[in-house]
UniProtKB/TrEMBL annotation:
Record keyword Oxidoreductase present: yes
Domain Gfo/Idh/MocA-like oxidoreductase N-terminal as annotated: residue spans: 46-163
Any one Gene Ontology molecular-function term assigned to this protein's record: inositol 2-dehydrogenase (NAD+) activity
EC number: 1.1.1.18
Residue span, Gfo/Idh/MocA-like oxidoreductase bacterial type C-terminal domain: 203-456
Alphabetical list of PROSITE patterns matching this protein: TAT
Protein name, entry field: Inositol 2-dehydrogenase
Length: 461
């Protein structure tokens, strides 16, 4: 349960005013359709969905507007059967091994929607196989994986769109960035990022692997471990506990908890805002307080039968110049509160509010404000629709998409540093130029993890 925390008086007042004045920022912008939508069936690209779970089945229907979904791949035959009926009327080619997908000449694009620990290996091998890729966030499990992905992307020239679709949110996030870029908040001083508390579990016993699931292949590059599962006593399937499907994000072995889940969305926008304000967004340190439900020794969870990612956190990210700080919290509204010398605004997926937003009625932003935020690329639709359209347009033009791997990793490294801070319980210092943790040998060793034998990355040699 989310802890009951009373906001400060000023914050309560601000949020009350904000809720009463939900004002959409009206910024003229031309939405341009991607040429692919007008292509004939024979000209459309073929794509495959690798990872047919929740995110996969939510995002693939959007992709079907722009390309033909011809194949599904998953290590769970139940996911394959369900996804085939839901997405393809039972007509898709089904694969248990993603490598079979990568050899197919009729597949131009892969959508990678696996658990986080598989992203890097599949993405790198897909690029070497000549595929462009839409990969869900967080792009990597570690900092060093990001360095490798960026190297391979530059080497191969493949287009990779990271699934941080808030970068394609015309209604809220892009408008917030445009307001900040136009100087309406002045110099930013503090950005509070609310990402909710992490997952909780009781002790989860070892259990028989679910029928149809290839557990060894699901684990892939991560250490061999026993499958755990506990059904919710109230028979609420959404509250079942496991170290497998859906709940993988609550285990450091497979993810980074809330810090790389919601953090990968909101910290992304926060860092873009710092740059939009003309301030330095090179991180130098992450420190603060956190709470786990298990004990840690040298950054590794001691207990193996409960969720082990951070449940609570109050972390500060400092940047070169020290003129702005990002405060990452579990106990405030999900969203981003920007505070500057001239005012403040709050944005999430449901609203964009604050006096600088109300002032747009009398003093609108310049007509090209959103276009500049969107790198002057054509935008169609909003959120996932626009994000996929941008991906296809970037494939056609062979340009970096709006959520490219290079800018994504600068943000995601902050999420990873925050996770290392929580696991070690101390401030982590970062050198952006060398992309290295400094002054802490143990923390620096956590920038990478070994791959399990037999699941190393195939570098295309």
């Amino acid at each position: 349960m989310k802890p009951a925390v009373k906001p400060s008086t000023s914050r309560r007042k601000f949020l009350a005013q904000a809720s009463a004045t939900v004002v959409a920022a009206s910024v003229p912008y031309t939405f341009t359709a991607s040429r692919s939508l007008a292509q004939s069936k024979s000209q459309r690209l073929g794509f495959a969905l690798i990872g047919v779970g929740g995110n996969g089945t939510r995002t693939a229907p959007v992709g079907k507007q722009f390309a033909d979904l011809v194949a599904l791949c998953d290590v769970d035959s139940n996911h394959l059967a369900y996804g085939n009926q839901l997405l393809c009327d039972g007509k898709a080619d089904l694969h248990a091994d993603y490598r079979d997908v990568l050899t197919r000449e009729d597949i131009d694009i892969v959508q990678i929607s696996t658990p986080d620990h598989w992203h890097t290996k599949i993405l790198i091998e897909a690029m070497y196989a000549g595929k462009d890729a839409y990969c869900e966030k967080p792009l990597t499990l570690t900092i060093d994986e990001g360095k490798l992905i960026r190297k391979v992307q530059q080497e191969t020239g493949k287009v990779v769109q990271v699934g941080t679709q808030q970068r394609s949110s015309f209604n809220f996030f892009n408008n917030a960035l445009a307001v900040i870029a136009d100087g309406r908040l002045g110099k930013l001083s503090k950005i509070t990022v609310g990402i909710d508390a992490g997952g909780w579990s009781p002790e989860i016993p070892v259990a028989k692997v679910s029928e149809g699931l290839d557990w060894d292949r699901w684990l892939g590059p991560t250490p061999k471990t026993e499958f755990r599962y506990l059904a919710d006593p109230k028979k609420d399937s959404a509250r079942n506990y496991t170290n497998g499907h859906t709940h993988f994000r609550w285990w450091y072995e497979h993810s980074g908890g809330k810090l790389t889940d919601w953090g990968a969305h909101h910290i992304d926008i926060a860092m873009l805002a710092i740059a939009a304000a003309g301030q330095n967004n090179d991180p130098v340190s992450v420190g603060g307080k956190s709470k786990h439900d298990v004990d840690f020794k040298d950054g590794v969870a001691v207990q193996k039968n409960r969720y082990n990612t951070a449940r609570e956190f109050d972390l500060n990210v400092n940047f070169a110049g020290n003129d702005v700080v990002i405060n990452i919290r579990h106990d405030v509204d999900n969203g981003i509160l920007f505070e500057g010398e001239l005012g403040r605004i709050f944005v999430n997926r449901g609203k964009l509010v604050g006096k600088p937003i109300e002032d747009l009625v009398a003093k609108p932003l310049p007509d090209d404000s959103i276009a500049k935020i969107y790198r002057n690329m054509p935008m169609q639709g909003n959120d996932r629709d626009a994000h996929w359209a941008n991906f296809i347009d970037s494939i056609e033009k062979r340009t970096l998409p709006i959520s490219d791997v290079h800018s994504h990793m600068k943000m995601l490294n902050v999420c990873h540093l925050a996770g290392i801070c929580c696991r070690l319980g101390r401030t982590i210092h970062w050198d952006q130029a060398s992309e290295t943790i400094t002054g802490d040998e143990l923390a620096a060793s956590m920038m990478s993890r070994p791959y399990r034998e037999g699941f190393e990355i195939d570098m295309g040699n």
